[in-house]
From TrEMBL:
The protein's name: GGDEF domain-containing protein
TM ranges: 20-39, 45-66, 73-94, 100-120, 127-146, 152-173
Keyword Membrane (UniProt): yes
Biological source species: Legionella maioricensis
Domain GGDEF positions: 190-361
Keyword Transmembrane helix belongs to the record: yes
SMART domains: GGDEF
Length: 369
């Protein structure tokens, strides 16, 4: 769900900022819980009140974040609360010691992590102005503390400010890594979807063979890259009795016949040859060979022998013959369209012969049957 202010809610929340706000809130509350007792023990009640109030506001802000899921508003509340707490504490103790000023260096890091470039510029500017302002003002000491207590407070501020900076950077790097992993996973899913749609666009779902579009594209590529000593032969193959199977036993049996025939045809070709289903009962193949090779005739002979064995269609034995037409580039023609036409005509010439047979485009009688 998406809200009107651009913040995605529940299903698509700004998860990275959401978790970072909770991380930083948890860290600041721990710091408050450790500093407040120390200051209370030393009876620095104004500091206790300011830091305690800041901790309560930050805690309430985390509850608001969980309920509203508004990372923008809650991010600004967290940074402003931290900034005002630091400013107020600096005003109280500047005349005693300057260790509180280093907390201003935390503000730009929070802004960059939680509210982006705009927030980084704004909060960095006001933090810098505060540092300059406090360094130029002459503020009388609000507290009169012993030197050893000043040392303890200074070391405490340095320690906790350093820990806050380190843990925030660690959490930010962790969230960035998580975000990169999510992007990588989504890119992987997009790649899978792209491959799936490409497969649907170029492959026949029944036989899992390339379809007509892929066949024509591949044939054009083969012809374009054909060397002077090579030939490419196109096979047009047609199952002779598919219509009878569909009419007599139903299209489900016809699909079984097509799937089994596709496997037999594919096994008869070489590994680097290209076999496709054009549609209906028509299959085609692309065979690259040298001028003097008889490879196309040998493959056609293997197909005819393979179709001598019956098909098993739901426990029913059924014999189906196949008609094969061959056309060769550059011997017969040199264009994709003409190759397909001549192979198709040769296939219909083979159909005139009873049983499985093969004809070449240059022949007027079958090559063999």
């Amino acid at each position: 769900m998406i809200s009107h202010n651009g913040q995605t809610r529940y299903g698509g929340i700004h998860v990275r900022q959401y978790r970072l706000i909770l991380y930083i809130t948890f860290e600041l509350i721990i710091v408050c819980a450790m500093i407040v007792p120390l200051y209370a023990y030393k009876k620095l009640w104004y500091l206790v009140a300011i830091i305690g109030l800041g901790g309560i506001i930050i805690l309430l802000n985390s509850i608001l974040l969980i309920r509203s899921r508004n990372t923008s508003v809650c991010g600004h509340i967290l940074i402003l609360t931290t900034f005002l707490t630091i400013t107020s504490a600096n005003y109280l103790v500047w005349g005693v010691g300057t260790s509180y000023s280093l907390w201003f260096y935390v503000i730009p890091l929070f802004a960059a992590s939680l509210v982006g470039w705009g927030g980084l510029f704004f909060y960095s500017t006001i933090a810098l102005l505060m540092i300059i302002g406090f360094s130029t003002l002459s503020i009388p000491p609000f507290y009169h503390l012993a030197p050893h207590l000043l040392t303890i407070i200074g070391r405490t501020n340095h320690l906790f400010a350093y820990l806050i900076i380190v843990t925030t950077v660690v959490n930010l790097m962790h969230e960035n890594k998580r975000y990169e992993q999510i992007l990588h996973y989504k890119n992987h899913l997009l790649g899978v979807e792209k491959d799936k749609y490409q497969h649907l666009a170029y492959f026949d779902p029944l036989t899992n063979l390339p379809n007509r579009q892929y066949f024509k594209k591949h044939l054009q590529e083969v012809i374009d890259s054909l060397s002077t000593n090579d030939c490419v032969t196109v096979f047009f193959m047609d199952l002779d009795n598919l219509k009878y199977v569909n009419d007599y036993w139903g299209h489900d049996m016809g699909d079984h016949l097509l799937a089994q025939a596709a496997k037999r045809i594919h096994l008869c070709f070489r590994e680097n040859d290209f076999v496709a289903r054009l549609g209906g009962d028509e299959f085609t193949g692309i065979v690259l060979h040298s001028q003097d090779e008889m490879t196309p005739q040998e493959i056609a002979q293997r197909i005819i022998h393979a179709f001598e064995q019956p098909f098993t269609l739901k426990k029913v034995k059924y014999h189906s013959s196949i008609s094969i037409g061959l056309s060769t580039c550059p011997n017969d023609t040199q264009t994709v369209v003409d190759l397909m036409i001549k192979a198709d005509l040769a296939m219909y010439a083979a159909k005139e012969i009873k049983g499985s047979s093969c004809c070449k485009a240059s022949q007027s009688i079958p090559d063999f049957n």
